[in-house]
Write a structure and sequence with these properties.
Layout: E1 5-6, E2 24-31, E3 39-43, E4 46-50, E5 56-60, E6 68-73, E7 79-85, E8 88-93, E9 97-102, E10 110-116, E11 123-127, E12 130-134, E13 140-144, E14 152-157, E15 162-169, E16 172-178, E17 181-186, E18 194-199, E19 207-211, E20 214-218, E21 224-228, E22 236-241, E23 247-253, E24 256-261, E25 265-270, E26 278-284, E27 291-295, E28 298-302, E29 308-314, E30 318-321, E31 324-331, E32 336-344, E33 350-358, E34 362-364, E35 370-372, E36 377-384, E37 390-400, E38 407-417, E39 421-424, E40 428-434, E41 439-447, E42 453-461, E43 465-467, E44 473-475, E45 480-487, E46 493-503, E47 511-520, E48 522-526, E49 533-537, E50 540-544, E51 550-554, E52 562-567, E53 575-579, E54 582-586, E55 592-596, E56 604-609, E57 617-621, E58 624-628, E59 634-638, E60 646-651, E61 659-663, E62 666-670, E63 676-680, E64 688-693, E65 701-705, E66 708-712, E67 718-722, E68 730-735, E69 743-747, E70 750-754, E71 760-764, E72 772-777, E73 783-789, E74 792-797, E75 801-806, E76 816-818, E77 822-827, E78 834-842, E79 848-855, E80 860-862, ...
Length: 1058
């Protein structure tokens, strides 16, 4: 009931409510009125609406979801406000005053009294026998309503501005004033009212409600103001809340503020902390929400042209929060606790009768019954303690005597979590790894569970893969471990393995990951394009590099190939041949290009012929170039003038011409699906087809040797034909390579096949009738063609470009062996010389030529005048001489250069030294000495290279086994050597230090060694130092410049001699 009156009930215990349950509103019903609803009040099952021009509308709200209009009464003027009191409703008419309507029979309301008020009437509030009217410009009017049929004004008071709404709280009326904010009026004597306080707000006061010491002012265009009215005479702003659009009406209920807003909505704010209102719910209205009132668990809104809107409130009485609890992940044998909060949002006490738990591993820590007071809350601890892994669900049901909420249910759920293994990077692709080397990658193993993860086993099924796993690996919850996986191929080829990781994972899963890699024995040279073909001349490789044109690579050092020239060309280069100083290139649909390669660093395109098809391969004989032109067949081009190539003949082929080879007077064409075609070119300008043989596969390349043709027949591998009778060729042997034979090269007793994804395949063809595959090398991508030079096979691949393989085991070649990698001449005195011999052997299959031998250091020489030729199995000795002319240690390299293709240069290290004798005179008694030569190895212990041995340094002064001229030797730290007792704790002779030596008579000591440079650094430590003296001349340390010690003079405390 909207009585606009607040009655205080004081109790002995103050209860502070901390909202744990969010009150919410939801639209459930509505009733459209004829005009515009400006105000609403409710009482029991009746809602009264001030419907402006439509007068008073009465609605049955016994079923809030289905309200029904039951009566309508015309009110003179414009009905804009009302208040129900008892069986009467007091309606304010904007331009007239107050009308009293009898509601004893709601279906037949009638006016029983009225009074005209100065300024009209915008709103009205009832308190006791008085009605308080917000009379616009007429201020606040006080009407005696003791007799509703005889209303009498008993007093009035002017407000600062237009009075729009009034709210009664205790002995004060709070008036919302347009442009005047809030006026506080003392109504303790209704017949003598007076304004006692004011708060001037920036907006326009349209609505007002009060709870306790706070007034809530609907400030229209300035939002909502919370005003502290604890001292009614000094109202103070507590908080200001910016609300979109215009705020019309406001009411307070259940510790919440309900705001009617111009933006077509009802806004609800948690007001448990009035200084910090929190928006908790929004209900949408149809039109401008102007007035709002709360009864029980429903909100009634005057919705202007939307009529009456009804919203249900959830969250009053006993409420439980949260509605569900997800414990999420809890460790097996662990425990997690959460609280359920039961709150009382209504002004009466309730009893919690019992709490039931349904669900495995869920429990509560609570004893019922227990009472919950108004505006209070209690917490019920809920426990989840899983004993196994899995997902669990249950319910917690709270039974109470709240008639609205006899059973409050909370859904509970959680997961028992043990150890959970997670492997990042399930598959590892190592790519190519050189045989004999190792590549590592890491597998990240994580424990995403909540118990310790124990890795009990890591098993590998496959060759050349390993891990660093050690038994007993434990990973804590949330932890990680990087397991190193290594690939160490011992042979070339593609390898794969499965690594299985076994653990105590809660699901018992064995995690498997796939690893793979290529054992690689080649030397890669990456090109910018996609290489199709290649050929060799001397130490140069010429590459048909697809759309990147011609690439020229120097391989005189096969381990370090180097690009020396390149040329961009139109189209895509598929094939090439080198003839004299020219490269002839098949460039697909762009035809045929001639390139001058006389300057390898600067190749130059000089002539081009545009063939009708797509040039795939080319060969040259004399003044003619022969082109395999795909569907353009065979093209014969005169290249006598390389700058002006001209076609002189052509011949149609039965299929796509891919490869070409010349042998004698015949051209052999690889014709795709039609095998081999032979053309007589004895007259190049009149080529004649003389034979063909249809192979089972797709023929890509052809080579001829003697009476046999060798075909690269794609999936059908190598096919060998007897071509003794061109008109009746027959297949005599074949060898399936495994993938796609695209190109081939014959060398010695072997055919080298470019086998696509199968890499490079070596086939023994010594018996053409029974060719045998004996070796293969994996390539990282598609192997398209191959050529050989010396002991190297060079292949063209689709992505890398060029790869070089060592095929020395299949190719006869010379091989050098030098019997010494290092020669140490030791000590050689000035003027002397020493000779050593090295033995050179040929352990290869062909003659070996030693082209040159030289040294690159002083005082070493070699007896070599002219090249030496060694037959297989023979050897030759060469004398190397060391004749030092100076004192010191000398090193150099002897280079042996030969035609061994694998070891073109062999290096032998040479070293020797020349020393001098240092004589030190000692006098009887104490001497301070150091030496400026580094003694020879005879003064060193075998296991100590830090410095000479002290005892051995003075062994020359021993008289006999029992007697010694040395009495004592001391270093700067006080350590000493005493020959009499055979004791020494000096670890070694430090050449940068001096020593104190006590001898029994005058004598000399001699040490042989290499000079220590005079400018050698001498480390000094804090305190006393005995510094060595390296120069062979006097140094000046006299004042005032100190000279030799001047660089450290600032740090010197005292310097003295013995």
């Amino acid at each position: 009931m909207k009585s606009k009156q607040l009655v205080f009930i004081i109790i002995s215990v103050l209860i502070t409510l901390t909202a744990t349950f969010a009150l919410e509103v939801e639209a459930v019903g509505s009733w459209d009125t004829q005009s515009r609803a400006y105000a609403v009040d409710v009482s029991g099952d009746i809602a009264c609406i001030a419907d402006y021009q439509g007068g008073l509308v009465i609605v049955d709200i016994s079923d809030p979801e289905r309200p029904r209009g039951i009566a309508q009464l015309n009110i003179p003027g414009f009905a804009c406000g009302l208040a129900i009191s008892g069986e009467n409703v007091y309606v304010s008419s904007l331009e007239v005053g107050i009308y009293v309507v009898d509601l004893s029979n709601p279906r037949q309301p009638n006016i029983i009294g009225s009074i005209q008020t100065q300024g009209g009437a915008n709103e009205v509030a009832i308190s006791g026998d008085f009605a308080y009217v917000a009379a616009m410009a007429g201020g606040l009017r006080v009407i005696n309503i003791e007799n509703p049929r005889d209303l009498r004004e008993v007093d009035w008071v002017g407000t600062r501005e237009v009075a729009r709404e009034v709210y009664i709280s205790g002995e004060y009326a709070y008036v919302a004033c347009n442009q005047g904010g809030l006026d506080v009026v003392d109504i303790s004597d209704p017949e003598n009212v007076r304004v006692v306080g004011n708060y001037d707000s920036p907006g326009n006061g349209f609505g007002i409600t009060v709870n306790g010491q706070y007034a809530y002012l609907a400030d229209y265009d300035a939002g909502l103001k919370v005003i502290n009215v604890e001292d009614p005479e000094e109202p103070e702003l507590e908080a200001a809340l910016n609300i979109p659009q215009l705020v019309w009406g406001v009411t307070y209920a259940y510790s919440h503020v309900f705001v009617a807003n111009h933006s077509n909505d009802l806004r609800v704010f948690d007001a448990s902390d009035p200084g910090n209102l929190e928006l908790v719910s929004i209900g949408q209205t149809v039109d401008v929400a102007i007035d709002v009132v709360v009864q029980d668990n429903y909100v009634y809104v005057a919705d202007h042209e939307g009529g009456l809107r009804i919203f249900e409130i959830t969250g009053i009485g006993l409420n439980i929060a949260p509605n569900e609890i997800d414990f999420e992940r809890v460790a097996v044998d662990g425990r997690s606790e959460r609280d359920i909060t039961v709150s009382n949002h209504i002004g009466e006490e309730f009893e919690i009768l019992r709490v039931d738990v349904d669900g495995e591993y869920f429990s509560i820590d609570f004893q019922a019954p227990e009472f919950i007071e108004p505006n209070a809350e209690i917490e019920i601890p809920v426990i989840f303690a899983p004993e196994e892994s899995g997902n669990f669900e249950g319910t917690i049901t709270v039974f109470s005597d709240d008639p609205r909420n006899e059973e409050l249910t909370v859904a509970v759920s959680g997961s028992g979590v043990g150890p959970i293994i997670s492997v990042m990077g399930r598959d590892i692709e190592f790519g190519r790894v050189t045989v004999g080397q190792s590549l590592q990658d890491d597998v990240l193993i994580r424990n995403r569970g909540l118990n310790n993860l124990i890795i009990s086993d890591v098993n590998i099924e496959g060759q050349y893969f390993s891990t660093d796993f050690q038994d007993g690996l434990v990973i804590e919850p949330g932890g990680r471990h990087e397991m190193i996986v290594s690939f160490s191929p011992e042979e070339d080829g593609n390898f794969s393995a499965e690594i299985s990781i076994t653990s105590n994972d809660q699901d018992g899963d064995v995690v498997a990951l796939d690893v793979s890699g290529m054992g690689f024995n080649g030397i890669c040279f990456e090109t910018p394009g996609s290489t199709h073909d290649l050929c060799v001349r001397d130490d140069m490789i010429f590459l048909a590099d697809g759309r990147s044109g011609l690439q020229i690579v120097d391989i005189h050092d096969p381990y370090n190939p180097e690009l020396v020239g390149e040329l961009d060309l139109p189209g895509e280069v598929f094939g090439l041949e080198i003839h004299d100083d020219f490269a002839y290139l098949a460039i697909g649909i762009s035809g045929f290009q001639i390139v001058d390669i006389s300057d390898l660093a600067n190749p130059e395109a000089i002539g081009r012929f545009d063939s009708p098809g797509s040039a795939q391969d080319i060969t040259v004989r004399g003044d003619y170039a022969y082109i395999a032109d795909e569907d353009g067949g065979l093209r014969v081009v005169d290249v006598f003038d390389p700058t002006r190539p001209a076609e002189v003949a052509s011949l149609e082929t039965p299929g796509i011409a891919r490869g070409i080879h010349i042998e004698g007077q015949n051209v052999f064409l690889a014709i795709d699906v039609r095998g081999l075609m032979v053309v007589d070119i004895s007259d190049p300008e009149t080529p004649v087809a003389v034979g063909n043989y249809n192979t089972p596969g797709w023929t890509y390349d052809v080579e001829v040797r003697g009476n046999f043709a060798y075909l690269a027949d794609e999936r059908r591998g190598l096919r060998i034909l007897n071509i003794e009778n061109i008109e009746d060729m027959v297949e005599v042997g074949f060898c399936v390579t495994g993938q796609n034979a695209y190109g081939l090269q014959l060398d010695g007793n072997y055919a080298y096949i470019a086998d696509g994804d199968g890499g490079l395949v070596v086939i023994d063809i010594i018996n053409p009738a029974e060719p045998q595959s004996i070796r293969s090398w994996a390539t990282p991508d598609v192997c398209r063609n191959v050529c050989t030079t010396d002991v190297w096979a060079v292949v063209a691949t689709s992505e890398v470009g060029m790869i070089i393989y060592d095929i020395s085991e299949y190719v006869p070649h010379p091989e050098i062996f030098v019997d010494a990698a290092r020669i140490d001449f030791g000590r050689v005195l000035p003027g002397d010389l020493q000779e050593e011999t090295i033995r050179l052997s040929n352990i290869g299959d062909l003659n070996l030529t030693i082209r040159e031998m030289n040294t690159n250091g002083d005082f070493f020489s070699i007896a070599f005048d002219e090249p030496i030729i060694l037959e297989p199995g023979s050897e030759h000795e060469v004398t190397v001489t060391f004749a030092p002319q100076d004192v010191g240690v000398f090193n150099c390299e002897l280079a042996v250069l030969s035609d061994d293709p694998l070891h073109r240069e062999v290096i032998v290290s040479l070293c020797g030294f020349n020393s001098r004798e240092l004589t030190v005179s000692l006098i009887e008694g104490w001497n301070m000495i150091s030496i400026n030569v580094s003694p020879t190895r005879e003064f060193y212990l075998e296991d100590n290279d830090d410095g000479p041995d002290v005892e051995m340094m003075f062994e020359q002064l021993r008289i006999d086994e029992e007697n010694h001229h040395v009495i004592l030797v001391k270093d700067e730290f006080g350590r000493f050597y005493n020959p009499e007792f055979g004791f020494s704790n000096i670890p070694h002779w430090n050449l940068t230090n001096g020593y104190l030596v006590n001898v029994d008579q005058d004598l000399e000591a001699v040490w042989t060694g290499v000079d220590i440079p005079a400018d050698t650094d001498i480390p000094l430590e804090t305190g006393w130092n005995i510094a060595a003296y390296f120069p062979q001349f006097d140094l000046d340390a006299s004042q005032p410049d100190f000279y030799v010690i001047s660089p450290i003079i600032e740090n010197v405390i005292i310097a003295k001699d013995r």
